[in-house]
TrEMBL record:
Role description: Phosphorylase b kinase catalyzes the phosphorylation of serine in certain substrates, including troponin I. The alpha chain may bind calmodulin.
Presence of the UniProt keyword Glycoprotein in the record: no
Bilayer topology: Lipid-anchor
Location, primary (coarse class): membrane
Biological pathway: Glycan biosynthesis; glycogen metabolism
Compartments reported by the entry: Cell membrane
Cellular component aspect of the GO annotation: phosphorylase kinase complex; plasma membrane
Keyword Amino-acid biosynthesis among UniProt keywords: no
SUPFAM superfamilies linked to this entry: Six-hairpin glycosidases
The protein, known as: Phosphorylase b kinase regulatory subunit
Domain GH15-like as annotated: residue spans: 25-392
Length: 394
């Protein structure tokens, strides 16, 4: 199956899902998005803070949050027969542009680090993984966090390409085009750069040792493909605003990724984050047998009643974790076996995967499992918890 076909959602699957749920109109989704996402968007920077008690805004979290808004705007685009829909579509699109430009400006403030990283490939010269949602400046120091997270930068570039292709105008000037081209140079060697990965702590023992991660390599490959020969000015552009990617780097990312899967890294046999590269949003692997093998391994080893564990022997937020220190001793990992926290978010990934692959049984199965995890916030909006943890007395 080609990448283009994989990116096209199954209409039949979506209809089947809708038939089993209560009827919701676009306006219902609009109000849900407004109450859960857009109400948290900073009016100055366009960024989303991680919570009410902090101004830290993670690049990865912001991109995923605004993807929901972008998806709804695309739905409104298909129903522009009413003036009210035009208005809401425009409002949603501009909210997307605001966040994507906010992140772009945050990264452009670190242009010297990007230039230096291209030469050194050092973690000390990496773009920051999070910024202040209030000022757009750095939130913590260079050595106070595992900033080298190539999957986060790659996810941003992937969605920049997808959103630009859909008609959004996110990049305004040639200076910004040049910076995006520099970001391509920043991620193009992801196939050989150990990073801290999606969970930000490197290897499984959390000692802060970066390692080569399949999820980072796969996201970089998808970003390189999405931006290759793309005109960032859309229909108003020309040769100067086109992004160029060397085919060699796409091939090397592809080769390394195929060799690594179904493993996530040297220390992690598998990882739920691989769902994001074998399916939505990256679709980095064309080999369906390898996709199936990887997905089967994830489900078999990580799935529980309330979601998927991030990876085996993950001590994060378990009752036995010592929260006073960031790392574990190697012998401690055994203590976390079979008490890993379960994240219902990954049921959503598997629902989307079922839709894209027209697997109605998978969609129905995970919709049922997700239904058990849904709770309502004080405003009556259905949400899912971040995670489920075992009780301390287990």
């Amino acid at each position: 199956m080609s990448i283009k076909l994989q990116r096209r959602a199954s209409i039949g699957g979506i209809r089947g899902l809708a038939a089993g749920a209560s009827e919701m109109t676009l306006d219902d989704y609009y109000h849900t998005v407004a109450k859960t996402i857009l109400c948290n968007q900073n009016p100055l920077t366009g960024l989303f803070a991680a919570g009410k008690d902090t101004d830290h805004a993670w690049v990865r979290d912001n991109v995923y949050a605004i993807m929901a808004v972008w998806g709804l705007s695309l739905s409104y685009k298909k129903h522009l027969d009413q003036m009210e829909n035009w208005t809401k579509c425009y409002e949603l699109e501009q909210s997307v542009v605001k966040t994507m430009r906010g992140l772009l400006i945050c990264m452009m403030k670190q242009v010297k680090k990007v230039e230096k990283f291209k030469t050194t490939l050092s973690r000390d010269d990496a773009l920051h993984a999070k910024y202040s949602s209030v000022t757009g400046n750095t939130a913590v120091g260079d050595n106070e966090w595992g900033h080298l997270q190539l999957d986060a930068t790659s996810l941003y570039l992937l969605m920049l390409g997808e959103m630009t292709s859909s008609g959004l105008h996110i990049v305004y000037t040639l200076d910004e085009v040049d910076f995006v081209q520099n970001l391509i140079f920043y991620i193009e060697q992801s196939y050989m750069i150990p990073d801290y990965g999606i969970w930000e702590r490197g290897d499984k023992t959390n000692h802060g040792y970066p390692e080569l991660n399949s999820s980072s390599v796969g996201m970089a490959k998808a970003a390189l493909e999405a931006l290759n020969e793309l005109d960032l000015f859309g229909s108003n552009g020309g040769p100067r605003s086109i992004i160029h990617v060397s085919a060699d780097y796409i091939y090397w990312c592809h080769s390394v990724l195929k060799a690594m899967l179904p493993r996530e890294s040297f220390s992690k046999e598998t990882d739920a984050s691989l769902l994001s590269i074998i399916s939505y949003p990256a679709f980095s692997i064309e080999d369906l047998d390898l996709v199936t093998e990887t997905k089967t391994g994830i489900i078999t080893k990580l799935q529980g009643r309330y979601g998927l564990s991030r990876f085996l022997r993950d001590g994060h937020k378990t009752p036995l974790e010592n929260a006073s220190r960031l790392h574990y001793d190697p012998h401690e990992l055994k203590r976390f076996e079979k008490i890993e926290c379960e994240w219902p978010l990954f049921f959503c990934y598997l629902i989307l995967d079922g839709l894209f692959h027209e697997n109605d049984e998978q969609v129905s199965n995970y919709c049922g499992l997700l239904e058990e995890c849904i709770i309502k916030n004080p405003e009556g909006v259905q949400i899912i918890p971040e995670l489920y943890a075992v009780t301390p007395d287990r």
